[in-house]
């Protein structure tokens, strides 16, 4: 069996901001009515007890995350080895209900963006039409948006750094964007 | 530049995060309609100077369709509302009336 690899083999960049491709992480797209008690219970069981995120939020724990993608879609991230178990837990909890759960682990690329002060905010503010001021976007916020010409989603961690995901097919493009936006000096706007 | 609020996910963003979907509240004429009705459904669109109703899709976000009411002259967005409506909501029409007295769009005033 061949070893799964990430799109850019863990590429890193160190300018004023530090950009790094993150190791592989298990991802499951879950679609269904978030008002359904069965879905809430099944997602809770599959995620190892994460709370349901509100609109535009992500519930982040040590090695797992539950992100709010749209009114009928959630994204569950967890260690790759636990994906099969989580899918089985969802299938059991949602038996007879209308839902969809699919593993998308290798469909996406993940990056981390960090730097001194608010540098990570500046990098993303250069690329996405999103208000990244501390009043509007803080730890636990999750946003699907556009990064230059491609769709992407990012969320903020407690330490002020960001994690970002995009489609695997545009990983090199997004890495290039992030590196260019992470060049030069900090502006100090935020 | 338009600033639109997606009624599905609550995000406010500028228009490049969205994609325009043309005129809102079209009535479909399909099989058994007259040629004239079918042609109107396919091709006849209003191109007003002022109040306009459009469909938009939050393409780089939650992916949902919604409706928006805006002014084509000033690019002011009066409001957005769910796609699952067959006509502009009364509260929005009253708001537009307070800003653009005497407005008319198709059969709505």
UniProtKB/TrEMBL annotation, chain A:
<dbReference type="Pfam" id="PF04268">
    <property type="entry name" value="SoxG"/>
</dbReference>
<protein>
    <submittedName>
        <fullName>Sarcosine oxidase subunit gamma</fullName>
    </submittedName>
</protein>
<dbReference type="InterPro" id="IPR027266">
    <property type="entry name" value="TrmE/GcvT-like"/>
</dbReference>
<dbReference type="InterPro" id="IPR007375">
    <property type="entry name" value="SoxG"/>
</dbReference>
From TrEMBL, chain B:
<dbReference type="GO" id="GO:0046653">
    <property type="term" value="P:tetrahydrofolate metabolic process"/>
</dbReference>
<protein>
    <submittedName>
        <fullName>Sarcosine oxidase subunit delta</fullName>
    </submittedName>
</protein>
<dbReference type="Pfam" id="PF04267">
    <property type="entry name" value="SoxD"/>
</dbReference>
<dbReference type="GO" id="GO:0008115">
    <property type="term" value="F:sarcosine oxidase activity"/>
</dbReference>
<dbReference type="InterPro" id="IPR006279">
    <property type="entry name" value="SoxD"/>
</dbReference>
<dbReference type="InterPro" id="IPR038561">
    <property type="entry name" value="SoxD_sf"/>
</dbReference>
């Amino acid at each position: 069996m061949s070893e799964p690899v990430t799109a850019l083999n863990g590429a890193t960049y160190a300018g004023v901001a530090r950009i790094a491709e993150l190791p592989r992480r298990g991802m499951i797209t879950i679609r269904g009515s978030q008002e359904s008690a069965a879905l809430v219970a099944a997602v809770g069981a599959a995620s190892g007890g994460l709370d349901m995120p509100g609109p535009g939020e992500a519930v982040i724990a040590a090695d797992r995350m539950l992100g709010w993608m749209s009114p009928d879609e959630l994204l569950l991230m967890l260690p790759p080895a636990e994906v099969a178990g989580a899918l089985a837990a969802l299938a059991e909890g949602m038996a007879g209900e209308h839902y969809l759960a699919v593993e998308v682990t290798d469909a996406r690329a993940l990056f981390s963006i960090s730097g001194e002060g608010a540098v990570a905010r500046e990098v993303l503010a250069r690329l996405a039409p999103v208000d990244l001021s501390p009043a509007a976007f803080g730890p636990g916020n999750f946003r699907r948006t556009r990064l230059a010409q491609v769709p992407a989603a990012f969320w903020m961690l407690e330490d002020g750094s960001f994690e970002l995901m995009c489609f695997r097919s545009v990983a090199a493009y997004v890495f290039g964007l992030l590196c260019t936006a992470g060049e030069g000096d900090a502006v100090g706007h935020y | 530049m338009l600033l639109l609020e997606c009624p599905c996910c609550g995000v406010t963003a500028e228009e490049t995060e969205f994609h325009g979907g043309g005129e809102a509240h079209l009535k479909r004429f399909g099989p058994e309609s007259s040629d004239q009705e079918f042609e109107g459904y396919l091709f006849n669109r209003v191109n007003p100077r002022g109040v306009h109703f459009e469909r938009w899709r939050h393409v780089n976000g939650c992916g949902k369709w919604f409706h928006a009411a805006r002014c084509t002259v000033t690019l002011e967005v009066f409001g957005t509302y769910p796609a699952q409506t067959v006509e502009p909501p009364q509260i929005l029409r009253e708001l537009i009336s307070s800003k653009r007295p005497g407005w008319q769009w198709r059969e709505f005033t």
